[in-house]
Amino acid sequence: MAMSDDQHSLALVTGGNRGIGLAIARALQKNGHDVVITYRSGTPPSGFKSIIMDVTSTESVDAGFDDIESKWGIPEIIVANAGITKDGLVMRMSDEDFESVIDANLTGSFRVARRATKGLLKLKRGRLIFIGSVVGGVGAPGQVNYSSSKAGLLGMARSFARELGSRGITSNVIAPGFVETDMTSALDEKRRADIASSVPLGRFSTAEEIGDVVSFIASPQAGYITGALIPVDGGLGMGH
After folding, report:
1. Helix (H) or strand (E) holding 61
2. How far is CA 33 from the centre of its chain?
3. Measured between alpha carbons, how far is 85 from 105 in angstroms, rounded to an integer?
4. Helix (H) or strand (E) holding 144
5. Tell me, what's the pLDDT at 11?
6. Residue 65 and residue 52: Cα distance in Å, rounded?
């Protein structure tokens, strides 16, 4: 069965309260979807349904989905975006720094997708969209933990694609490169120029450009794309 052609399906974006997650939520909403965002703390942005969810806790993920399904129905577009960084040189990286990033970014995405799959199997359709990173393919100094977590998403997404494809459920990874966010805007001008010069298109992407690609993958037009790694990185990771 195809995705709802009216595009008014329910979409869930984890970590949708700021940065790339919020841009994804806005793009999906603009495309006619009803959007629920999850957040861990603080105040959620207005204009969206929202729910507190900690992706490092199976109990929190399960409770969040129970709440969403009882209030608003089954989300059929799942964007696993929530994640953390704990950068540091490998010789000084503690077990905790490594494991906590894997737990949030990789295992957290698994917890969300596993619980979402219950509803998607009932619907016999759906989209699993994992937000990876260019460093999952090319690596980055100081990010052994983060790049490992993002590389792992690809194997996971492709396994979901093979396991669930016969039920009309697609599973893909979107891999952003350097994106204009609060974090990158704090870099000094020389560092920003150095980074931009390493990108064939010579610039950072906007968060909206990531959101637009996610929105396309969520659409009926992308119904025959599954198991794909879709780079949105200005050519930085080409070939990976």
Report:
1. helix 58-72
2. 17
3. 9
4. helix 144-164
5. 98
6. 10
Domain spans in the chain, listed from the N-terminal domain onward: 10-232
Q: Is 172 helix (H, G, I), strand (E, B) or coil?
A: strand
Catalytic site positions: 146
CATH code for the structural domain at 10-232:
3.40.50.720
How many Cα atoms within 13 Å fall on the side-chain side of residue 179? 23
HSE value, Cβ hemisphere, 13 Å, CA-based, for 187: 16
Q: Mean pLDDT for each consecutive 10-residue tract of the chain (240 residues)?
A: 60 95 97 96 92 98 98 98 94 97 98 98 98 94 96 98 98 95 77 88 95 98 98 91
* Residue in 127, 131, 120 with CA at minimum distance from that of residue 217: 127
Q: Judge contact between 107 and 69, C-beta under 8 A.
A: no
Specify whether the CB–CB gap between 237 and 138 falls below 8 A: yes
How far apart are alpha carbons 102 and 84 in whole angstroms?
9
Task: Give the integer Cα–Cα distance in Å for 15 and 18.
Answer: 7
Spatial CA neighbour of 80 closest among 225, 218, 222: 218
For residues 23 and 79, the answer to whether their CB atoms sit within 8 Å is no
**Do residues 212 and 137 make contact, with C-beta atoms less than 8 angstroms apart?**
no
Q: What pLDDT sits at residue 191?
A: 82
**Token pair of 81, please?**
């975006």
pLDDT at 112: 98
User: Would you call 16 exposed, middle or buried from its count of C-beta atoms within 10 A (0-12, 13-18, 19+)?
Assistant: buried
pTM recorded for the entire structure: 0.95
Rounded to whole angstroms, the Cα distance separating 119 from 125 reads 9
pLDDT of residue 195: 86
pLDDT at res. 7? 53
